[in-house]
Write a structure and sequence with these properties.
Layout (H helix, E strand, L loop, with lengths): L4 E8 L3 H10 L11 E9 L3 H12 L6 H5 L7 E3 L2 H5 L6 E4 L3 H13 L3 E5 L6 H14 L3 E4 L6 H12 L5 E9 L22 H5 L1 H12 L11 E10 L4 E11 L4 E8 L10 E5 L3 E4 L8 E5 L11 E4 L11 H12 L10 H17 L14
Parallel strand pairs: 1-2, 1-4, 2-3, 4-5, 5-6, 7-10
Antiparallel strand pairs: 7-11, 8-9, 9-10, 11-12, 12-13, 13-14
The chain binds NADP nicotinamide-adenine-dinucleotide phosphate.
Amino acid sequence: MAAPYTLRWGIISTGWISTEFTEDLLVDPATRNVNDVAHVVEAVGSRSLESAQKFIDKLKAAPEPYAWGVARGALDKTKARASYQEVYDDPDVDVVYIGTPVTHHHKDAKAALLAGKHVVCEKPFTFDLAELDELIAIAREKKLFLMEAVWTRFHPISYAVQDVLASGVLGRPRRYAADFSKDFKLETKPISHRLLAPELGGGGLLDMGPYPSVWAMLTLHQHPLNTKRTPPKVVNTYQTIYSRTGVDARSRWVLEFEELGAEGILMTDMLCQNFKEGAVVLQCEEGDLVIESPPQKPGVFHIVPHEEVDGVKERSTHDYTIPAAQGHGLAFEADAVARCIRDGQTECPRMPLDESRIVQSWFDAVRKNGRTVMRDMEGTAGK
Ligand SMILES: NC(=O)c1ccc[n+]([C@@H]2O[C@H](COP(=O)([O-])OP(=O)(O)OC[C@H]3O[C@@H](n4cnc5c(N)ncnc54)[C@H](OP(=O)(O)O)[C@@H]3O)[C@@H](O)[C@H]2O)c1
Protein backbone atom coordinates (compact mmCIF):
# COMPACT_ATOMS: atom_id res chain seq x y z
CA MET A 1 0.00 0.00 0.00
CA ALA A 2 1.29 3.49 -0.92
CA ALA A 3 2.24 5.83 1.92
CA PRO A 4 -0.52 8.32 2.73
CA TYR A 5 -0.28 11.88 1.46
CA THR A 6 0.58 14.01 4.49
CA LEU A 7 -0.86 17.52 4.64
CA ARG A 8 1.12 20.09 6.65
CA TRP A 9 -1.15 22.44 8.60
CA GLY A 10 -0.55 25.90 10.01
CA ILE A 11 -3.06 26.78 12.72
CA ILE A 12 -4.18 30.37 13.19
CA SER A 13 -5.28 31.29 16.72
CA THR A 14 -5.41 29.27 19.89
CA GLY A 15 -9.07 29.47 20.94
CA TRP A 16 -11.71 26.83 21.43
CA ILE A 17 -12.36 25.57 17.91
CA SER A 18 -8.69 25.75 16.87
CA THR A 19 -7.95 23.45 19.81
CA GLU A 20 -10.65 20.95 18.83
CA PHE A 21 -9.67 21.03 15.16
CA THR A 22 -5.98 20.48 15.92
CA GLU A 23 -6.78 17.68 18.36
CA ASP A 24 -8.72 15.93 15.62
CA LEU A 25 -5.72 16.14 13.29
CA LEU A 26 -4.00 13.90 15.84
CA VAL A 27 -6.59 11.11 15.76
CA ASP A 28 -5.67 7.86 14.00
CA PRO A 29 -7.19 8.15 10.48
CA ALA A 30 -7.85 4.40 10.56
CA THR A 31 -10.67 5.11 13.06
CA ARG A 32 -12.39 6.79 10.07
CA ASN A 33 -11.33 4.03 7.66
CA VAL A 34 -8.94 6.51 6.07
CA ASN A 35 -5.54 5.36 4.85
CA ASP A 36 -4.78 7.63 1.88
CA VAL A 37 -4.18 10.89 3.77
CA ALA A 38 -2.59 11.99 7.05
CA HIS A 39 -1.99 15.26 8.90
CA VAL A 40 0.87 17.00 10.69
CA VAL A 41 0.92 20.39 12.37
CA GLU A 42 3.86 22.53 11.24
CA ALA A 43 3.10 25.80 13.02
CA VAL A 44 0.69 27.47 15.40
CA GLY A 45 0.26 31.24 15.23
CA SER A 46 -1.14 33.37 17.99
CA ARG A 47 -1.16 37.00 18.99
CA SER A 48 1.20 35.88 21.75
CA LEU A 49 4.09 33.44 21.65
CA GLU A 50 3.20 32.23 25.11
CA SER A 51 -0.29 31.27 24.02
CA ALA A 52 1.01 29.44 20.94
CA GLN A 53 3.50 27.49 23.06
CA LYS A 54 0.88 26.68 25.69
CA PHE A 55 -1.43 25.42 22.95
CA ILE A 56 1.25 23.05 21.62
CA ASP A 57 2.27 21.87 25.09
CA LYS A 58 -1.34 21.11 25.97
CA LEU A 59 -1.83 19.12 22.78
CA LYS A 60 1.33 17.14 23.46
CA ALA A 61 -0.18 16.05 26.78
CA ALA A 62 -3.64 15.27 25.33
CA PRO A 63 -5.21 11.88 26.15
CA GLU A 64 -6.42 9.33 23.61
CA PRO A 65 -7.61 9.47 20.90
CA TYR A 66 -5.29 12.49 20.36
CA ALA A 67 -2.22 10.93 21.97
CA TRP A 68 -2.08 8.62 18.94
CA GLY A 69 -0.86 11.41 16.64
CA VAL A 70 1.47 12.85 19.26
CA ALA A 71 3.15 9.46 19.66
CA ARG A 72 3.58 9.24 15.88
CA GLY A 73 5.26 12.61 15.53
CA ALA A 74 2.40 14.84 14.26
CA LEU A 75 3.60 17.60 16.59
CA ASP A 76 7.32 16.86 16.50
CA LYS A 77 8.15 19.83 14.25
CA THR A 78 5.38 22.21 15.36
CA LYS A 79 6.70 25.75 15.76
CA ALA A 80 5.08 28.28 18.08
CA ARG A 81 4.76 31.65 16.33
CA ALA A 82 4.15 35.04 17.90
CA SER A 83 2.21 36.32 14.89
CA TYR A 84 -0.13 34.91 12.29
CA GLN A 85 2.03 36.28 9.47
CA GLU A 86 4.94 34.03 10.49
CA VAL A 87 2.70 31.04 9.84
CA TYR A 88 1.62 32.38 6.43
CA ASP A 89 5.31 32.86 5.55
CA ASP A 90 6.43 29.41 6.75
CA PRO A 91 7.59 27.37 3.72
CA ASP A 92 6.80 24.12 5.58
CA VAL A 93 3.10 24.98 5.83
CA ASP A 94 0.82 23.79 2.99
CA VAL A 95 -2.53 24.98 4.29
CA VAL A 96 -3.65 27.50 6.89
CA TYR A 97 -6.62 26.83 9.18
CA ILE A 98 -8.27 30.01 10.48
CA GLY A 99 -10.12 29.87 13.81
CA THR A 100 -10.36 33.57 14.67
CA PRO A 101 -13.65 35.48 15.27
CA VAL A 102 -15.66 36.05 12.09
CA THR A 103 -14.86 39.75 11.72
CA HIS A 104 -11.19 38.74 11.44
CA HIS A 105 -11.66 35.93 8.89
CA HIS A 106 -11.37 38.12 5.81
CA LYS A 107 -8.15 39.87 6.76
CA ASP A 108 -6.57 36.64 8.07
CA ALA A 109 -7.58 34.55 5.04
CA LYS A 110 -6.55 37.31 2.66
CA ALA A 111 -3.09 37.59 4.22
CA ALA A 112 -2.64 33.81 4.04
CA LEU A 113 -3.72 33.68 0.37
CA LEU A 114 -1.48 36.61 -0.51
CA ALA A 115 1.42 34.72 1.07
CA GLY A 116 0.61 31.82 -1.27
CA LYS A 117 -1.08 29.47 1.20
CA HIS A 118 -4.15 27.31 0.74
CA VAL A 119 -6.84 28.31 3.24
CA VAL A 120 -9.54 26.60 5.29
CA CYS A 121 -11.57 29.14 7.24
CA GLU A 122 -14.04 28.51 10.06
CA LYS A 123 -17.74 29.20 9.57
CA PRO A 124 -19.27 31.63 8.93
CA PHE A 125 -16.81 32.24 6.12
CA THR A 126 -16.78 36.02 6.38
CA PHE A 127 -18.74 38.92 7.85
CA ASP A 128 -20.36 39.75 4.51
CA LEU A 129 -20.50 38.62 0.91
CA ALA A 130 -18.21 41.37 -0.37
CA GLU A 131 -15.40 40.00 1.83
CA LEU A 132 -16.01 36.47 0.60
CA ASP A 133 -16.03 37.53 -3.03
CA GLU A 134 -12.67 39.20 -2.59
CA LEU A 135 -11.18 36.04 -1.07
CA ILE A 136 -12.58 33.90 -3.88
CA ALA A 137 -11.10 36.27 -6.48
CA ILE A 138 -7.65 36.13 -4.86
CA ALA A 139 -7.75 32.34 -4.47
CA ARG A 140 -8.79 31.90 -8.11
CA GLU A 141 -6.16 34.29 -9.37
CA LYS A 142 -3.45 32.54 -7.37
CA LYS A 143 -4.86 29.05 -8.03
CA LEU A 144 -5.04 28.30 -4.31
CA PHE A 145 -7.44 26.06 -2.42
CA LEU A 146 -10.10 27.90 -0.39
CA MET A 147 -12.88 26.38 1.72
CA GLU A 148 -15.30 27.26 4.49
CA ALA A 149 -14.95 24.74 7.32
CA VAL A 150 -18.54 23.55 7.57
CA TRP A 151 -17.66 20.24 9.26
CA THR A 152 -21.25 18.95 9.24
CA ARG A 153 -21.15 18.50 5.47
CA PHE A 154 -18.44 15.86 5.85
CA HIS A 155 -20.09 13.80 8.61
CA PRO A 156 -21.29 10.32 7.63
CA ILE A 157 -24.86 11.29 8.61
CA SER A 158 -24.92 14.02 5.95
CA TYR A 159 -24.19 11.54 3.17
CA ALA A 160 -26.74 9.10 4.63
CA VAL A 161 -29.48 11.75 4.71
CA GLN A 162 -28.75 12.65 1.10
CA ASP A 163 -28.87 8.97 0.10
CA VAL A 164 -32.40 8.75 1.52
CA LEU A 165 -33.48 11.81 -0.46
CA ALA A 166 -31.81 10.49 -3.63
CA SER A 167 -33.63 7.16 -3.25
CA GLY A 168 -36.89 9.00 -3.81
CA VAL A 169 -38.64 7.22 -0.93
CA LEU A 170 -39.78 10.53 0.59
CA GLY A 171 -40.83 12.14 -2.67
CA ARG A 172 -40.83 15.85 -3.33
CA PRO A 173 -39.88 18.15 -0.44
CA ARG A 174 -42.62 20.58 0.60
CA ARG A 175 -41.66 22.31 3.81
CA TYR A 176 -38.52 22.68 5.92
CA ALA A 177 -37.87 23.94 9.43
CA ALA A 178 -34.44 24.04 11.03
CA ASP A 179 -33.28 25.50 14.27
CA PHE A 180 -30.06 26.01 16.14
CA SER A 181 -30.81 27.25 19.62
CA LYS A 182 -28.76 27.24 22.77
CA ASP A 183 -29.34 28.87 26.11
CA PHE A 184 -25.96 30.57 26.42
CA LYS A 185 -26.89 32.23 29.77
CA LEU A 186 -25.92 35.48 28.13
CA GLU A 187 -26.33 37.52 31.33
CA THR A 188 -23.34 35.69 32.80
CA LYS A 189 -21.05 36.62 29.91
CA PRO A 190 -19.01 39.82 29.67
CA ILE A 191 -20.05 42.15 26.86
CA SER A 192 -16.60 41.64 25.32
CA HIS A 193 -17.47 37.95 24.66
CA ARG A 194 -17.30 36.86 21.01
CA LEU A 195 -21.02 36.01 21.03
CA LEU A 196 -22.01 39.45 22.34
CA ALA A 197 -19.52 41.94 20.91
CA PRO A 198 -20.62 43.47 17.59
CA GLU A 199 -17.01 44.12 16.57
CA LEU A 200 -16.31 40.37 16.84
CA GLY A 201 -19.40 39.51 14.78
CA GLY A 202 -21.57 38.74 17.83
CA GLY A 203 -25.14 37.46 17.78
CA GLY A 204 -26.72 34.15 16.89
CA LEU A 205 -27.15 34.75 13.16
CA LEU A 206 -23.49 34.55 12.23
CA ASP A 207 -22.39 32.10 14.90
CA MET A 208 -25.28 29.63 14.72
CA GLY A 209 -26.83 30.41 11.33
CA PRO A 210 -24.47 28.12 9.37
CA TYR A 211 -26.20 25.03 10.83
CA PRO A 212 -29.88 25.49 9.93
CA SER A 213 -28.36 26.66 6.63
CA VAL A 214 -26.17 23.64 5.96
CA TRP A 215 -29.15 21.29 6.14
CA ALA A 216 -31.17 23.56 3.85
CA MET A 217 -28.34 23.38 1.34
CA LEU A 218 -27.88 19.60 1.62
CA THR A 219 -31.54 18.59 1.67
CA LEU A 220 -33.23 21.25 -0.50
CA HIS A 221 -30.69 23.08 -2.63
CA GLN A 222 -28.89 19.82 -3.50
CA HIS A 223 -32.12 17.81 -3.77
CA PRO A 224 -32.12 15.76 -7.01
CA LEU A 225 -35.41 17.42 -8.03
CA ASN A 226 -33.88 20.89 -7.63
CA THR A 227 -32.22 20.52 -11.00
CA LYS A 228 -31.51 24.17 -11.77
CA ARG A 229 -29.90 24.85 -8.39
CA THR A 230 -31.15 28.42 -8.49
CA PRO A 231 -30.19 30.18 -5.24
CA PRO A 232 -33.29 30.22 -3.01
CA LYS A 233 -34.94 33.58 -2.30
CA VAL A 234 -35.02 35.06 1.19
CA VAL A 235 -38.69 36.05 1.42
CA ASN A 236 -38.93 37.15 5.06
CA THR A 237 -36.64 37.88 8.00
CA TYR A 238 -36.91 38.87 11.66
CA GLN A 239 -34.37 39.54 14.41
CA THR A 240 -34.79 40.05 18.16
CA ILE A 241 -32.28 42.39 19.77
CA TYR A 242 -30.18 41.51 22.80
CA SER A 243 -30.32 44.80 24.66
CA ARG A 244 -26.93 44.72 26.44
CA THR A 245 -24.97 44.95 23.19
CA GLY A 246 -27.54 45.34 20.40
CA VAL A 247 -26.65 42.10 18.59
CA ASP A 248 -29.31 39.55 17.61
CA ALA A 249 -30.51 37.17 20.31
CA ARG A 250 -32.88 35.51 17.86
CA SER A 251 -32.94 35.42 14.05
CA ARG A 252 -35.46 33.87 11.71
CA TRP A 253 -35.63 33.81 7.94
CA VAL A 254 -37.87 32.19 5.34
CA LEU A 255 -36.48 30.74 2.13
CA GLU A 256 -38.33 29.87 -1.03
CA PHE A 257 -37.06 27.07 -3.27
CA GLU A 258 -39.08 27.88 -6.34
CA GLU A 259 -38.37 24.84 -8.53
CA LEU A 260 -39.23 22.46 -5.68
CA GLY A 261 -42.29 24.39 -4.61
CA ALA A 262 -40.87 24.24 -1.08
CA GLU A 263 -40.40 26.78 1.66
CA GLY A 264 -38.19 26.70 4.71
CA ILE A 265 -37.93 28.56 7.98
CA LEU A 266 -34.47 28.82 9.54
CA MET A 267 -33.92 29.93 13.13
CA THR A 268 -31.16 30.73 15.57
CA ASP A 269 -31.65 31.52 19.23
CA MET A 270 -29.19 32.29 22.02
CA LEU A 271 -31.85 32.34 24.74
CA CYS A 272 -33.30 28.82 24.75
CA GLN A 273 -32.28 25.24 24.08
CA ASN A 274 -32.86 23.35 20.84
CA PHE A 275 -35.71 20.84 20.78
CA LYS A 276 -33.68 17.64 21.20
CA GLU A 277 -35.80 15.37 19.07
CA GLY A 278 -35.95 17.52 15.97
CA ALA A 279 -33.51 20.24 14.99
CA VAL A 280 -34.35 19.81 11.31
CA VAL A 281 -37.67 18.67 9.87
CA LEU A 282 -38.04 18.16 6.14
CA GLN A 283 -41.62 17.38 5.21
CA CYS A 284 -41.99 15.64 1.88
CA GLU A 285 -44.92 14.28 -0.13
CA GLU A 286 -44.45 10.68 1.04
CA GLY A 287 -43.10 11.14 4.56
CA ASP A 288 -40.90 13.28 6.74
CA LEU A 289 -37.21 13.41 7.57
CA VAL A 290 -36.38 14.44 11.14
CA ILE A 291 -32.80 15.13 12.18
CA GLU A 292 -32.12 15.23 15.90
CA SER A 293 -30.31 17.98 17.72
CA PRO A 294 -27.65 19.32 17.74
CA PRO A 295 -27.78 20.41 14.10
CA GLN A 296 -24.02 20.98 13.84
CA LYS A 297 -23.29 17.36 14.79
CA PRO A 298 -26.43 15.27 14.85
CA GLY A 299 -26.07 11.56 15.51
CA VAL A 300 -29.52 10.34 14.58
CA PHE A 301 -32.21 10.91 11.98
CA HIS A 302 -35.65 9.43 11.55
CA ILE A 303 -37.91 8.72 8.60
CA VAL A 304 -41.46 9.30 9.76
CA PRO A 305 -44.67 8.26 7.97
CA HIS A 306 -47.54 10.66 7.53
CA GLU A 307 -50.79 10.03 9.36
CA GLU A 308 -52.41 8.79 6.16
CA VAL A 309 -51.33 5.33 4.97
CA ASP A 310 -49.94 6.45 1.60
CA GLY A 311 -46.20 6.84 1.19
CA VAL A 312 -43.69 5.73 3.82
CA LYS A 313 -45.34 3.01 5.94
CA GLU A 314 -43.01 2.59 8.91
CA ARG A 315 -40.96 4.84 11.09
CA SER A 316 -37.23 4.08 10.96
CA THR A 317 -34.31 5.42 12.97
CA HIS A 318 -30.77 5.78 11.63
CA ASP A 319 -27.86 6.22 14.02
CA TYR A 320 -24.62 7.77 12.73
CA THR A 321 -23.29 8.99 16.06
CA ILE A 322 -19.60 9.83 15.81
CA PRO A 323 -17.80 7.62 18.33
CA ALA A 324 -15.41 9.18 20.85
CA ALA A 325 -12.55 7.24 19.22
CA GLN A 326 -12.93 9.55 16.19
CA GLY A 327 -12.49 12.71 18.29
CA HIS A 328 -14.80 15.68 17.95
CA GLY A 329 -15.77 15.02 14.32
CA LEU A 330 -13.65 17.69 12.65
CA ALA A 331 -11.18 15.35 10.94
CA PHE A 332 -13.60 14.34 8.16
CA GLU A 333 -13.32 17.82 6.65
CA ALA A 334 -9.54 17.80 7.15
CA ASP A 335 -9.30 14.54 5.19
CA ALA A 336 -11.33 16.05 2.35
CA VAL A 337 -9.03 19.11 2.30
CA ALA A 338 -5.96 16.86 2.15
CA ARG A 339 -7.38 14.95 -0.81
CA CYS A 340 -8.25 18.16 -2.67
CA ILE A 341 -4.81 19.65 -2.15
CA ARG A 342 -3.10 16.37 -3.02
CA ASP A 343 -5.09 16.25 -6.25
CA GLY A 344 -4.46 19.90 -7.17
CA GLN A 345 -8.09 20.98 -6.67
CA THR A 346 -8.70 24.59 -5.66
CA GLU A 347 -12.23 24.00 -4.44
CA CYS A 348 -13.82 21.16 -2.50
CA PRO A 349 -16.72 19.54 -4.39
CA ARG A 350 -18.43 18.77 -1.07
CA MET A 351 -18.23 22.42 0.05
CA PRO A 352 -18.29 24.51 -3.13
CA LEU A 353 -17.58 28.22 -2.92
CA ASP A 354 -20.83 29.01 -4.72
CA GLU A 355 -22.73 27.34 -1.89
CA SER A 356 -20.81 29.36 0.71
CA ARG A 357 -21.79 32.46 -1.29
CA ILE A 358 -25.47 31.53 -1.18
CA VAL A 359 -25.49 31.09 2.59
CA GLN A 360 -23.40 34.22 3.12
CA SER A 361 -25.96 36.17 1.11
CA TRP A 362 -28.75 34.98 3.45
CA PHE A 363 -26.83 36.33 6.43
CA ASP A 364 -26.36 39.67 4.67
CA ALA A 365 -30.09 39.83 3.92
CA VAL A 366 -31.18 38.98 7.48
CA ARG A 367 -28.69 41.42 9.02
CA LYS A 368 -29.52 44.26 6.66
CA ASN A 369 -33.28 43.81 7.11
CA GLY A 370 -32.89 43.65 10.89
CA ARG A 371 -32.53 46.24 13.61
CA THR A 372 -29.29 45.17 15.30
CA VAL A 373 -26.31 47.46 15.74
CA MET A 374 -24.64 45.34 13.05
CA ARG A 375 -27.23 46.25 10.43
CA ASP A 376 -25.06 48.87 8.71
CA MET A 377 -21.68 47.47 9.67
CA GLU A 378 -19.35 46.88 6.75
CA GLY A 379 -16.67 44.26 6.40
CA THR A 380 -13.09 44.81 5.36
CA ALA A 381 -13.36 43.94 1.65
CA GLY A 382 -10.89 46.02 -0.34
CA LYS A 383 -8.89 46.85 2.80
N1 LIG B 1 -16.95 24.46 13.48
C1 LIG B 1 -17.44 24.63 14.69
O1 LIG B 1 -18.06 23.75 15.25
C2 LIG B 1 -17.19 25.89 15.43
C3 LIG B 1 -17.37 25.90 16.82
C4 LIG B 1 -17.09 27.08 17.50
C5 LIG B 1 -16.68 28.20 16.81
N2 LIG B 1 -16.55 28.16 15.46
C6 LIG B 1 -16.12 29.36 14.72
O2 LIG B 1 -14.73 29.52 14.97
C7 LIG B 1 -14.40 30.88 15.15
C8 LIG B 1 -13.76 31.08 16.52
O3 LIG B 1 -14.62 30.64 17.54
P1 LIG B 1 -14.07 30.16 19.00
O4 LIG B 1 -15.26 29.77 19.78
O5 LIG B 1 -12.97 29.19 18.84
O6 LIG B 1 -13.53 31.54 19.55
P2 LIG B 1 -12.45 31.80 20.71
O7 LIG B 1 -12.37 30.63 21.62
O8 LIG B 1 -12.78 33.12 21.27
O9 LIG B 1 -11.07 31.87 19.92
C9 LIG B 1 -10.82 32.85 18.96
C10 LIG B 1 -9.32 33.09 18.87
O10 LIG B 1 -9.09 34.08 17.88
C11 LIG B 1 -7.94 34.83 18.21
N3 LIG B 1 -8.26 36.27 18.08
C12 LIG B 1 -7.72 37.11 17.17
N4 LIG B 1 -8.18 38.34 17.31
C13 LIG B 1 -9.04 38.31 18.35
C14 LIG B 1 -9.84 39.30 19.00
N5 LIG B 1 -9.82 40.58 18.60
N6 LIG B 1 -10.59 38.92 20.03
C15 LIG B 1 -10.62 37.64 20.44
N7 LIG B 1 -9.88 36.66 19.86
C16 LIG B 1 -9.10 37.00 18.82
C17 LIG B 1 -7.53 34.44 19.62
O11 LIG B 1 -6.39 33.58 19.49
P3 LIG B 1 -4.90 34.10 19.76
O12 LIG B 1 -4.96 34.87 21.04
O13 LIG B 1 -4.14 32.85 19.86
O14 LIG B 1 -4.47 34.95 18.61
C18 LIG B 1 -8.70 33.63 20.15
O15 LIG B 1 -8.30 32.61 21.01
C19 LIG B 1 -15.70 31.66 14.91
O16 LIG B 1 -15.78 32.04 13.58
C20 LIG B 1 -16.79 30.62 15.20
O17 LIG B 1 -17.98 30.87 14.49
C21 LIG B 1 -16.77 27.03 14.76
